Amino acid sequence: QKEVEQNSGPLSVPEGAIASLNCTYSDRGSQSFFWYRQYSGKSPELIMFIYSNGDKEDGRFTAQLNKASQYVSLLIRDSQPSDSATYLCAVQTGAGSYQLTFGKGTKLSVIP
Amino acid sequence: GAVVSQHPSRVICKSGTSVKIECRSLDFQATTMFWYRQFPKQSLMLMATSNEGSKATYEQGVEKDKFLINHASLTLSTLTVTSAHPEDSSFYICSTDTQQETQYFGPGTRLLVL
Fold this sequence. Notes:
The complex is a heterodimer of chains A (112) and B (114).
Chain A: E1 4-6, E2 11-14, E3 19-25, E4 30-38, E5 45-50, E6 54-58, E7 61-66, E8 71-76, E9 85-93, E10 100-102, E11 106-111
Parallel strand pairs in A: 2-11
Antiparallel strand pairs in A: 1-3, 3-8, 4-5, 4-9, 6-7, 7-8, 9-10, 9-11
Chain B: E1 4-7, E2 10-13, E3 19-25, E4 32-38, E5 45-51, E6 57-58, E7 67-73, E8 76-81, E9 90-97, E10 103-105, E11 109-113
């Protein structure tokens, strides 16, 4: 069974600090990895996706992937109170399959 | 990214009635759409994969006769919750498969069954 694990949190960081969100997955065949942000009562919105080992940066966000360790992370630099939300890690397995398996999410609170 | 709409955004109904939720892909022809359900403080759980012009594929434990999915066009998929009960109260979210990057989600429909 494909599993995606996240620390549920809450993770609290002060404004301006770096928030580090972690995710592990069980299926070694997983090929694509996504981070979504979900505000309370809203649907998820895509932040980043990463396919290859290493880092991928987009503005204040950096996704890191290590397929050997089956680990993916999201760093948020200069955290803002508006970043306070639940962050969902999602994993896509198998070529031609666009189904996503989601983790339970990590709740992030950025303290002003 | 793709733009996805859902209607209604919120619905309250009596137990035993049926509720239809529409999911529209506004700027992309979606061969495949996905339906998720999210209970409070839980993650998204995939209910079914909706394929245009064919039967939906349901995940294990999801009753296909209770959750009817129709994907009659490339821009519209509907989910009908038949004979709804209070335990069906949840946040229902659809998404489109863009076949390029990832899934883009609709705004969700909050269902409350009294």
